[in-house]
Every structure is written in structure tokens, then in C-alpha cells.
Amino acid sequence: MEEKEEFENSSEDSTEDSSEDEFSWSETTFGDGWNGEDMAQHPERWIYEITNEDSNDIENCINGIRESKTNFDQLEIHRIARCDITLGKFGEKLIEMRNDIRRGIGFRLIRGIQIEKYSRFEICVAYWCIGLYLGEAISQNGMGHLLGHIYDLGADHTKPETRIYRTKYKQRFHTDGGDMVGLLCLMQSKSGGESKLCSTITIYREMMKRRPDLVEELKKPLFYDRKGEVPVGKDPFFQRAVFSNQNGVFMARIAPTFIEAAPKRFPDRIPPLSAKLVEAIAMFEALAMEFCLDMDFLPGDIQLVNNHTLTHARGTYEDYDEPKRKRHLLRLWINESFDNPSKGILTAKTRLCVPLYPE
């Protein structure tokens, strides 16, 4: 059965603009590619352990908002702005991490947020504030969720409109919306659900060595299905290349099942995938598996991933029977640059919000 990974518009308009800028590929700047096996041997490169001082900064931030806002428990979290908060020295560390995620290896794992001492509302406030130091949160679905819940709601994964984060099934390698995706672990699964990350720079270079002809297939604009979440005045699909150079900098965005679904759902408007394109996507996925880093989340972990230079996947998982013990992650889609015009997925019915629980 076909699984569907998460991928949405990183911009309502820019996703449909598959043209490259005036830079040629010979002038393209690449960041740091890496091998998952090497990364696994050097966790100090990507794991940051929360200190007591960091924990105090987080608690002081929550208390500062409580003292400055009336009716704290009824506060609309997405109304909290960067100018309303401070995270002290921890905030400075977050800015350093953001810069490294942008220009370096492309990801970090922050370990040890003390979520057990806070209410659900306080956790969401703290996570939102951490996100404000990284950039601007954008809408993740047609409902306008600025903070998403990765939780098995029992949705039918065989339906084309189903978003896989509402199920327990695996996700193929893909990229999310926004410049960066953040995942805060509230609860682990009973088993499975491991996270896989791979450098798309490494994938690109390996494809160039082995099959440069297939690289050319992924530089062409491809059709993507919008999963029924269609902005006003837009088609139910858009075009984008997998490999591109934006302002002279390498970027890769992919969602295989969204690419595969587009010609099936709109055969009168979109041609079928060529055999060579199918081969190119298969090679991309095979290389991602070959060079990926596996990691498991602990409660209180935050994974931050650059969507332009990394692709990620998730294994199928088994949950506990009790709803409160089921695997639960909080997700942020973040535009790291505030001059990015994207606001994420916006339809005629979208109302921006920060839900405290899965829905």
C-alpha cells in the first residue's frame, strides 16, 4: 500500500515557480554534505544537552509571559511575538544553532527540555518561544495549525487526501514546508518510529558520480499534488524541481508520493511519469537509505532540520493502547528568514491557530 509523506507548499507562489535564477550550476554554492555512519560516531557534532541555566531561562520566559499578559491560561499562543519574550543565554545559543543549521550540517538535536514540570499549555508556550528565536512559524495545513501534532488519530492512510502524520505508518524520504522543521517529543512510541535524516547534498553528489543523467531528470520542474489543500485561485497541483539553485545556493525539495499522485489524480492535465523519472526518484530514495543517520527521540528532545539541504523519513511504529501514552510530537514549520513571503498552507477556510491537542 502506498504511504504518503508530508510535503506542502513552502510558499504559495514560489513553489509554482520552477525557474532558476541567473546562476549556472557551475557557480552553485554547496554546504556541508555528510555520511550518516560518520555522524553516528560523532554525536557531539549535533546533540546539544540542555543545562540548568538553559532550563532556568525557559522557565523565566514562561513566567515573564504569565506576568505580562492578562488571563495567561486563555492566551492565544500565536499572538506571542518575538519582542514579547527573552530566553536569555539560551536564546543566544538558539541563534547560533540556527546559523549552523543554515550553513553547516543542517540539523541539531536539543536534548533534555524538562517537559514533565510543565502543563500542556506551558509546554506549547515554551516551544513557540523557542521557535520565535529560529524564525517565523507558518501554517502546516488547511486548518491553519501553526503548531502541529504528530499523533496517530487512526486516519485511513490509503485515502489520497490523508496526511500521514495522523497515522502510525512509515513515511518515505521527503521534505516539509518552510525553511526548517522542528519536532518536540512529548511521548515515545512503544516501538519503531525512528527518525532518518540524510544530506541531499550527499545524495546529489553521489548521483552525479553514478548517474548524472538521472540528476538532470530531477532538475526539471515536476508536478506535485496539493492533497486537496488548495489556496484560492490556485490549481490543485503545483510545479517544482527536486534539485535547484536558488540565488546561487543549492537546494533540494522532494515528496515522492505527491509527485506520483499528481498524474494519477489529474490525468487530463498532467502527463504520466517517464520511466527515467521513476528511476531517478528510486535512486534518490536508495541513496538516502544508504547514507542516512538514524535517531530515536526521547521526551523533551527537539529535532531541528534544514528543509533545503536535508531529507527525512520515519519508520512505522507501534503505540501503547492508552491514549496518553501514544507517540506524540509537536511540530513547527519555520521560515528562518523573515523576508520569506511564504505563510505556508492558506486556503479560503484557513484560520491560524495553535491547538493544544491533536485534531
From TrEMBL:
GO terms for cellular component: cytoplasm. SUPFAM superfamilies: Clavaminate synthase-like (SSF51197). GO terms for molecular function: diaminopimelate epimerase activity; dioxygenase activity. Coiled coil: none annotated. Keywords: Antibiotic biosynthesis, Dioxygenase, Oxidoreductase. It comes from the Eukaryota. Residues 1-24 have a biased composition (Acidic residues). One of its GO terms (biological process) is antibiotic biosynthetic process. Residues 1-37 are annotated as: Disordered. Residues 87-333 form the TauD/TfdA-like domain. This is Taurine catabolism dioxygenase TauD. The lineage of its organism: Eukaryota, Metazoa, Ecdysozoa, Arthropoda, Crustacea.
